[in-house]
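Human: Cast an eye over this sequence-structure pair and say how the chain folds.
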Amino acid sequence: MGTHAAIVRRLPDNTIQYGNIINDGFLSYVGIILMVYYDSPKLVEQLFSLGQLETLGAPGTENNPALFDTESKTYCTNRWKGHRSHRTCDSEMEICPEVMFTDYYYFYDNEEWFYVKPDCGWQKIPLHYVLNRLSYFSKHPNECPQIMGRNEPDTCVRYEMDIAYLKEILFEYPKEDAEYKQLLDASGINIEETFEELRKTNFPLYEFLEKHLNLVNYFDPWSVYMVGESHLPPSKVKLRKKSEQHVETYFWNLS
């Protein structure tokens, strides 16, 4: 209990609607509930009609006064402070939940759920892939990186996302942007050595950001992950050079 999440959706006029789910925001609970029970425009509309929530369960459990619904095997949906409407904004850059320390973001965009990792930037990745990756790590724990002395699937997925981001800005993106390559070269980084050292840390992207903020700030605060089969890490991270006006990820050319 007490792990805060935010649910977000893009409306037909391209404005953004968002609000909190106060408890059990983990990928292994709220993430699964969203994919299993709210994975269509009609069900997403039903979900957002409830307002901001204390807990999320299967559709219809908002009418069950119990804590746990024995039929769906989920917690019962419980509204936050009676009925608290969702907020709206004009851009994904302006998403700002009421509850501090919201660690998990779930974004329904173009009729698909994404998980958005907000730690250092906004790392947007298909939720179905993340949940399949969690399942894969649960079945193959020996393939899960040992982070903070643990190999929890949730932590492993988030670590892999950081590593994929670092591979992109250190090795791949410089091949297609001469201006950025010049900036990277001027930093004096030993790329191979730096990358190997970061792989040993618990929060590799955060560690990199602390020392090389100017490199990360070259890019738009959002990134989009390209993925393949669940037995493989993310295949590529789509980055854009920062511009005066953010282009919504919905409009990025991801081919």
